[in-house]
Structure formats: structure tokens, C-alpha cells
């Protein structure tokens, strides 16, 4: 092969994650010469995909490619690491391997953007002097495994007296909450507010 071959020059100058001699050695050790990759440039197995020659990385060097990319270019995340490695290197399931590598990298997980909405700020419960001024309502579920038709318990707690009322129910809809409050506190009157946990 001529040294002026454009692909040969591309391979010589594009290797930045591994040394060319190291790739040759490991390709021979992993017996990649007998596989479906029959194109060689400068004794390096390559695969032509979409008119681009990509270096075939043997199994023994894949982790080192990922680690070197991480060390040289920083903790980029899955998509940027794919965009960095895949134009020059190839191995079967490369995208999955990069994704798994990034998922198990502690620094990448800390730097990853949060996709969830921000949590609401916790606030203190307002002080109260009178009974039934502030009531907290919460639901405990998961009782359907005990051969019961009632799957939920609605807990109502008075902040002044710390008294607790418990109401079993079949569902956790708004109507169920309203009915349990009307049954228990209908004759007492309306309080200042309810604190409901969802």
C-alpha cells in the first residue's frame, strides 16, 4: 500500500486514543484477522461504513478506548462520547457499550443534567392554638394483598391536639377524601386549612 494513500494518512493522524502498534498487536492476539473484517490499511483492520474507514477495536482494547476518551476529553456524557468515538472506531454494539460505561461512571452521574422537575420547598407547619384549625391528611396504601376490599387508609391528624383519625377506603380519589372529612368533621365546622401529602 502506498504511503500517500488518503485513507492511510487519515488513520495515521486520527489515532488519538490508542497507539497504532498497540492496535495491530491486539488485533492479532484477538484473532480478528480471520473474521469478517478483511480490509487492512497499514496492517490495521478497518471497516468501511458510510464511505468512512473506521478502525476495528478488539475486545481487549475497548475499555481502554473509553477510559482514554474520558481522561483526554472530560466527562462528556453518553451522546457526546458516542459522537467523539464512533467516527474513528468501530466494534459491535459500540453505542450500548458507551452508554453502559457512562452509566457506571460516578463523575458522569454527578455531572448529568437532572431531567426531573425541581422539588417543592418544604415549609414548616403553621402554629395553631385551637383544635381542628389545621388538619393534615395522608394516605397509606398497599392493603390489597390482605384479602380486604379496602386498599387504602386515610389518616387525618389534628395539629393542635395530635389526635389521629383513620378511614379505610377502596380508592384514593378526591371524592373519598371529601366524604371522609364530611363524615368525621361535618358537625364541627370548617377549619382554617388542610395540609395534604400526595
UniProtKB/TrEMBL annotation:
The record ties this protein, via InterPro entries, to: Integrase_H2C2, Retrovirus_Pol_polyprotein, RNaseH-like_sf, RNaseH_sf
**Group of enzyme by EC:** transferase
Q: Which domain of life is it from?
A: Eukaryota
According to the UniProt entry, its GO molecular function terms are: nucleic acid binding; RNA-directed DNA polymerase activity
Per the UniProt record, one Pfam family is Integrase_H2C2
* Listed EC numbers: 2.7.7.49
What Gene3D superfamilies does the entry give?
1.10.340.70, Ribonuclease H-like superfamily/Ribonuclease H (3.30.420.10)
What region holds the Integrase zinc-binding domain?
Answer: 57-113
| PANTHER family noted in UniProt | INTEGRASE CATALYTIC DOMAIN-CONTAINING PROTEIN (PTHR37984:SF15), PROTEIN CBG26694 (PTHR37984)
Q: Return the protein name.
A: RNA-directed DNA polymerase
